[in-house]
Specification:
The protein is built from two helices and 34 strands. By secondary structure, the protein is mainly beta. A hairpin with a 5-residue loop joins strand 2 and strand 3. The longest helix is centred in the last third of the chain and has 13 residues.
């Protein structure tokens, strides 16, 4: 489950206080713990411990896909897909799947954003940047600016010059239910912008004494605010009771008939929080994990004896419930739940058919199509797993991935498991699902998705990542995969 840009206060103000003459103390560049891995359905990004940025997956910018939000690998104009993580830039502090990143020296880099003549390799477009996301960036001088998601013919100004100043004296921000800015004085302000980077509603003050912000990346999410007295406050989407105030809507996110418009104190003694589109979670000082909101497939285990019942369960809880004790970190992503405990053991539970839980339980057949998995659910043949310890000596979860899941062990090694895919040529007759894109000339440039399952953790390395996928496919389907290339170029 994705925690979207939670504010990291330690280190953001390196030089405490102000220098002589009342000068503003510069913000440090936001630096998550490295290595960092971001994985979506189409693009993978890795920043190694030295700040080298790698990408892999499918480049729909080069394929000529039309529409908003095209993604690029940043590997030049000729690569259609590349299944092997390939270095595209160095000295990077963090990056996101929308083809942007920030270097350790504060340069905002991006690739695949222009309508035409884009080099599709990272280029510097802003400097003096401390943090960014797909539509905003924060300067080291505490100024929060908009930036268009990509070039568009409807923009009022040239893409390179687009963007508006939202607020000054800002130390953090996030996007979710709406847009939020956390100012240096601890006040939180809300505002609205559109995809062109234009301010639609000017900032309005919401509440004071906040030290951290949390939200899912959806407009249906609840936003969470951790105050300096360790109380947690909720605001925004509450369709499934995710704000924890005992209320809920009609469970139709299109209506959004239940919204918390005044911040609500939902908990005390809170040290950390997480949110997705319809469920919120928080951790208290005694390492107890609580949850409220949608209870998908009974992942919140609202039945008896701390067990799931995926076929008969309450759909939601509008007040927080204790989920597990002795917790350090968690991730709820898709249909699986992962908890890292204080003894460094990793536990998982949920839907197991696709092998995403890492405990070895998975569908054993060779039909990995979406239709087959859907049919198995309808027939109640799908596999589920109760809370199970799957690893020891785990230091942290990588929480920005889906399908494949990654952890770092206490010895520094990275391990992963789950349901993944590689891209292959359309001539590969053993594929079961085609994903086709149309280029600017109306011609289809096709690649096929070939799925695989790694049911138990294996050690990750750039050198073995693609081969592990091929080995999994060969073992499951009896296919000679040596003929299939890792990289495909547009002119092939």
């Amino acid at each position: 489950m994705k925690r979207i840009f939670a504010a990291v206060l330690a280190g953001m103000l390196l030089l405490a206080g102000c220098s002589g003459g009342g000068k503003t103390v510069l913000l440090d560049v936001y630096q998550p713990e490295l290595p960092e891995i971001v994985l979506t359905s189409q693009i993978g990004l890795l920043i190694d411990g030295s700040g080298n940025l790698y990408s892999w997956g499918y480049d729909d910018y080069n394929a000529g896909s039309e529409g908003y939000g095209k993604t690029s690998l940043g590997q030049g104009k000729e690569v259609l897909y590349n299944n092997i993580p390939t270095e595209i830039y160095s000295g990077v502090a963090f990056a996101e799947s929308g083809s942007r990143g920030v270097t350790k020296s504060g340069e905002l880099i991006e690739w695949g954003k222009l309508l035409e003549d884009d080099s599709c390799v990272p280029v510097v477009v802003r400097e003096n940047v401390a943090k960014m996301n797909w539509i905003l960036y924060l300067t080291k001088d505490h100024e929060l600016w908009t930036i268009p998601a990509q070039e568009d013919l409807l923009q009022k100004e040239a893409y390179a010059d687009s963007g508006e100043l939202v607020l000054t004296d800002v130390r953090d921000f996030l996007s979710g239910y709406t847009y939020f800015a956390l100012k240096d004085d601890g006040s939180v302000w809300t505002f609205l912008i559109n995809g062109y980077g234009e301010i639609v509603e000017r900032p309005k003050k919401l509440l004071d004494d906040v030290v951290k912000l949390y939200s899912g990346n959806s407009t249906t999410s609840a936003a969470l605010f951790l105050k300096d007295d360790e109380t947690l406050w909720s605001y925004g989407g509450n369709e499934y009771g995710q704000c924890g105030n005992g209320e809920h809507g009609d469970f139709d996110v299109k209506t959004q008939d239940c919204v918390v418009t005044e911040p609500y104190q939902m908990a005390e003694n809170v040290t950390e929080a997480w949110a997705n589109s319809d469920t919120t979670y928080y951790l208290t000082a005694d390492n107890s994990l609580y949850a409220c909101g949608k209870n998908f497939n009974d992942l919140l285990m609202l039945g008896e004896n701390g067990q799931m019942n995926p076929y008969d369960f309450p759909a939601f809880t509008a007040t927080p419930v204790l989920l597990m004790e002795n917790v350090r970190q968690m991730q709820q992503s898709g249909e699986g739940f992962f908890v890292l405990k204080t003894d460094n053991t990793l536990w998982s539970w949920g839907y197991a058919d696709k092998g995403i839980l890492g405990g070895g339980v998975c569908y054993e057949g060779d039909d990995l199509s979406a239709g087959n998995f859907s049919d198995r659910k309808k027939a109640k043949e799908a596999l589920y797993s109760q809370p199970t310890q799957i690893m020891k000596n785990v230091e942290r979860l990588f929480t920005e991935t889906a399908g494949l899941y990654f952890v770092q062990k206490t010895d520094g090694s990275i391990w992963y498991w789950g349901f993944g895919s590689i891209y292959v040529d359309k001539e590969d007759d053993w594929d079961k699902q085609e994903t086709a894109w149309q280029n600017a000339e109306g011609e289809y440039i096709s690649a096929y998705l070939k799925y695989y399952i790694i049911p138990t953790p294996v050690e990750f390395s750039i050198e073995t990542f693609f081969q592990n996928a091929l080995d999994s496919i060969a073992a499951r389907e009896g296919i000679d995969t040596a003929q299939y290339q890792a990289v495909k170029y547009i002119d092939e």
